[in-house]
């Protein structure tokens, strides 16, 4: 994939190379993508996003909540 960076983006990549954070602008771009991913797609955020979707589904009637006896089924008698 070839990407043509211009303007502020190109300046940032060039600075990253000049300051020694990366050896090339391609490497600097990879580092930036990794940093973005770690900041926006970490596991905790993904779990919370999924739980929010489940809550929305429950409110919309798309999912059913179970009480503890329903969830345990035949094993409910052992929990008491």
Structure in words:
- The chain is an all-alpha fold.
- 62% of the residues lie in helices and 0% in strands.
- It has 2 domains: 1-41; 42-80, no CATH class.
- It is built from 4 helices and no strands.
- Helix 1 (7-18) crosses helix 2 (25-40).
- The protein is elongated and about 70 Å long.
- The model has no long low-confidence stretch (mean pLDDT 92).
Number of strands: 0
Rg, rounded, reads 24 Å
Reported for the largest beta sheet, the result is:
none
- What distance lies between the first and last C-alpha atoms, to the nearest angstrom? 61 Å
Class by SSE composition: mainly alpha
Average pLDDT for all residues = 92
Q: How large is the count of helical segments? A: 4
The string of secondary-structure elements, in order, is HHHH
Regions with little confidence, pLDDT below 50 for 5+ residues: none
Q: What oligomeric assembly is this protein in? A: single chain
Helicity level:
55-70%
Percentage of β-strand residues: under 5%
Overall tally of structural domains = 2
Question: Shape from CA axes?
Answer: elongated
């Amino acid at each position: 994939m070839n990407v043509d960076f211009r303007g502020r983006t190109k300046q940032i990549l060039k600075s990253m190379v000049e300051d020694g954070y990366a050896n090339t602008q391609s490497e600097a771009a990879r580092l930036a993508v990794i940093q973005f991913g770690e900041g926006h797609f970490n596991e905790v955020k993904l779990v919370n996003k999924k739980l929010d979707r489940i809550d929305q589904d429950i409110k919309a009637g798309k999912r059913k909540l179970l009480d503890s006896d329903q969830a345990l089924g035949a094993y409910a008698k052992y929990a008491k």
